[in-house]
């Protein structure tokens, strides 16, 4: 089963990082009134700004932790680097 590390931009401009097996479903949960992280409930709507695939939960969790430790500037650089590859 593949896991994904994702970053969301909240309506207040803050960034939220998490892991999931289904990015679209998880994004819908963050934006719904019944599910989602406590952090994003007060900061809706959120939008997906970054996703990265991982082979397993362990490596996804480690990568999530590493991203969470980055400064905001480094996170934005990661997002910009990924979005420039898509173009």
Automatic annotation (TrEMBL):
Residues 1-77 form the GIY-YIG domain. PROSITE patterns: GIY_YIG (PS50164). Belongs to the UPF0213 family. This is Excinuclease ABC C subunit domain protein. The lineage of its organism: Bacteria, Pseudomonadati, Campylobacterota, Epsilonproteobacteria, Campylobacterales.
């Amino acid at each position: 089963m593949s896991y994904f590390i994702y970053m969301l931009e909240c309506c207040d401009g803050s960034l939220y990082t998490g892991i999931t097996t289904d990015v679209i479903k998880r994004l819908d949960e963050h934006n719904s009134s019944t599910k989602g992280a406590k952090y994003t409930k007060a900061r809706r709507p959120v939008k997906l700004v970054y996703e990265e695939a991982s082979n397993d939960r362990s490596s996804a969790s480690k990568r999530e932790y590493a991203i969470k430790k980055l400064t905001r500037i480094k996170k934005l650089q990661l997002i910009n680097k990924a979005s420039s590859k898509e173009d």
